[in-house]
């Protein structure tokens, strides 16, 4: 494959990854709304998100004949199971963080620190020191995170802040691990099957935990519509786009492209939920988003 062809492939992956980030930005808001409407705890919301998203993706594969091309190999099975476990961990911690702090702050902490974990993981795996641009991008992300965390009006207690930030950091670590893992392709395994069966497995892992707090979903139009949207657009579609973009983009750029999620989530939370960020907080948000431009593709 020529250098020009590789460059063009990576150029095409950029809008795919950015679209995934924008769609993800609606997921936190939809999940928070589902929890409020159905009186569900965060882990139950995460469970429904993964099971519905995986169910939609598996159904699409069945209708289009994609199941016939699914490789029956140990590496493929291992990738799906590990991806599912990481998706379950990521979603559970994310919605738990949203429970303690605001949607915008939980999202920004998670996505803002993920590039740092990806950069550290890449350096450890390749045993090569990151270049200046790779160092500058997570540094800017951390600076934006500090400014955002100091922004008042987003949490009510110190304990809530500590719990929310801790869960968001654990969430970021899990998603960074998933990003680094998925960047290494498995022969014959396409992004959509990885998404579909990984989500089903991840959701199944959360069922026993979610059942202890209640999984009953009221059959009301607002509840059902919110659940279907959460499972389809910011879950099945967004994750499929993300995994597809990872096939030609660097994991580090993919992590930074995901910074569009907090931008979307913040705008929606401010407009629809009444969340408030001070000018310092908005400067932190802008700094996080600006790091995308520093990332090597």
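^ Assign residues to that structure.
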């Amino acid at each position: 494959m020529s250098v020009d062809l590789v460059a063009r492939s990576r150029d095409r992956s950029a809008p795919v990854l950015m679209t995934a980030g924008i769609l993800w930005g609606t997921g936190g808001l939809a999940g928070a709304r589902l929890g409020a409407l159905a009186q569900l705890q965060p882990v139950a919301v995460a469970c429904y998100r993964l099971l519905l998203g995986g169910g939609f993706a598996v159904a699409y594969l069945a209708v289009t004949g994609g199941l016939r091309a699914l490789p029956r190999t140990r590496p493929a099975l291992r990738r799906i199971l590990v991806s599912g476990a990481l998706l379950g961990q990521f979603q559970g911690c994310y919605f738990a963080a949203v429970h303690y702090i605001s949607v915008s702050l939980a999202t920004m902490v998670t996505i803002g620190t993920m590039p740092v974990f990806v950069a550290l993981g890449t350096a450890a795996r390749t045993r090569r020191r990151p270049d200046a641009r790779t160092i500058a991008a997570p540094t800017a992300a951390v600076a934006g995170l500090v400014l955002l965390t100091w922004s008042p009006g987003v949490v009510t207690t110190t304990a809530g802040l500590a719990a929310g930030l801790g869960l968001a950091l654990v969430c970021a670590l899990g998603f960074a691990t998933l990003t680094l893992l998925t960047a290494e392709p498995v022969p014959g395994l396409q992004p959509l099957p990885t998404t579909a069966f990984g989500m089903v497995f991840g959701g199944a892992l959360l069922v026993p935990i979610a059942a202890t707090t209640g999984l009953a979903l009221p059959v009301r139009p607002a509840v059902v519509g919110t659940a279907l949207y959460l499972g389809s657009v910011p879950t099945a579609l967004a994750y499929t786009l993300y995994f597809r973009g990872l096939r030609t983009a660097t994991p580090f750029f993919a992590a930074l492209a995901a910074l569009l999620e907090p931008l979307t989530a913040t705008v929606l939370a401010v407009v629809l939920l009444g969340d408030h960020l001070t000018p310092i907080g908005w400067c932190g948000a802008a700094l996080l988003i600006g790091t995308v431009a520093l990332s090597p593709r």
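DSSP finds twelve helices and no strands in the chain.
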